[in-house]
C-alpha cells in the first residue's frame, strides 16, 4: 500500500493541477486549450509552450488569413469602380488616400494591393464578392464617344439583362488611363469596350457580336445567373 506521504503527494498534485486549470480558464476566458487541434499540438503550442511554438501558431494564423483573402485582383478593380464611383486612383497628388495606409500611388503595370481597392477600410472580401456576383455580374468598360463601345452597349440593351450591366465610361474618369492599363494587365485587353462577366473578359464589340451570332451569348449570361428578359435575344441584330 502506498505510504501516507505518497498519498498526500498525489492529493496535492491533483489539487495543484486543478488550481492551475482554473487559473488558466479565469485568465484566458475558456478551456479551449484542453481540446487543441492536432495541427497546433504538432506545432508544440500551449499556453506554457516555448516561444517557438507561439511563433509557429502566429505563422499558421497568418497563412490561414492570407488564404482566405486570395481574391483575384480583377474583382478588386470591379469592386472599386462600382462601390466607390466618386473615388479615383489619382485623386490626391497622383495617388489615393487609403485608410490605414495613407497616400498610395498606383502603378498600373504592377499588382495593386486589394486594400487599395477598398480605400475606406471595409475589406470583407467575401461579402464584397457576394455583392458583385448577385448585383453587378456584368461590367462594361466603355468610352462615350467610341463607336465600338456604342455598338456593344446597343447589343446588350437588346438582351434586357437583369441585373443590368454596369457601364464604366473611362473618358469621364480622371483615372481612366490608369484603369485601362490595369485592365490590360489583368485581362489582356486595353481597348474599349471590354465586357466582363464575373470578372472574365468576353472581349470587345466584335467578340460579343460573334458570340451573339453563334447563339452563345444568351447562355453565357444565363450560366452567370443573369436573367435575359428579351424574348428575341438570340435573333440577328439590325444595325441599319
From TrEMBL:
SUPFAM superfamilies: Thioredoxin-like. Residues 138-200 form the Glutaredoxin domain. It comes from the Eukaryota. Transmembrane segments: none annotated. Pfam families: Glutaredoxin (PF00462). One of its GO terms (cellular component) is cis-Golgi network. GO terms for molecular function: glutathione disulfide oxidoreductase activity. InterPro entries: Glutaredoxin, Glutaredoxin_euk/vir, Glutaredoxin_subgr, Thioredoxin-like_sf. One of its GO terms (biological process) is cellular response to oxidative stress. This is Glutaredoxin domain-containing protein. It comes from Fomitopsis schrenkii (Brown rot fungus).
Amino acid at each position: 500500500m502506498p505510504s501516507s506521504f505518497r498519498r498526500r503527494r498525489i492529493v496535492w498534485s491533483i489539487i495543484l493541477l486543478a488550481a492551475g486549470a482554473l487559473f488558466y480558464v479565469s485568465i484566458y476566458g475558456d478551456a479551449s486549450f484542453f481540446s487543441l487541434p492536432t495541427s497546433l499540438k504538432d506545432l508544440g503550442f500551449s499556453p506554457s509552450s516555448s516561444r517557438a511554438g507561439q511563433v509557429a501558431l502566429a505563422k499558421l494564423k497568418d497563412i490561414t488569413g492570407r488564404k482566405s483573402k486570395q481574391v483575384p485582383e480583377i474583382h478588386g478593380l470591379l469592386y472599386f469602380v462600382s462601390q466607390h464611383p466618386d473615388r479615383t486612383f489619382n485623386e490626391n497628388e497622383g495617388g489615393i488616400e487609403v485608410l490605414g495606409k495613407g497616400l498610395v500611388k498606383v502603378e498600373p503595370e504592377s499588382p495593386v494591393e486589394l486594400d487599395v481597392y477598398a480605400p475606406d477600410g471595409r475589406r470583407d472580401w467575401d461579402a464584397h464578392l457576394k455583392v458583385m456576383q448577385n448585383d453587378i455580374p456584368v461590367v462594361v468598360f466603355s468610352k462615350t464617344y467610341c463607336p465600338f463601345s456604342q455598338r456593344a452597349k446597343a447589343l446588350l440593351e437588346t438582351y434586357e439583362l437583369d441585373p443590368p450591366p454596369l457601364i464604366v465610361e473611362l473618358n469621364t474618369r480622371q483615372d481612366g488611363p490608369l484603369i485601362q492599363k490595369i485592365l490590360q494587365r489583368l485581362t489582356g485587353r486595353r481597348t474599349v469596350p471590354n465586357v466582363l462577366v464575373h470578372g472574365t473578359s468576353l472581349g470587345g464589340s466584335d467578340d460579343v457580336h460573334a458570340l451573339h451570332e453563334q447563339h452563345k451569348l444568351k447562355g453565357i449570361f444565363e450560366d452567370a445567373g443573369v436573367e435575359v428578359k428579351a424574348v428575341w435575344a438570340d435573333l440577328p441584330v439590325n444595325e441599319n
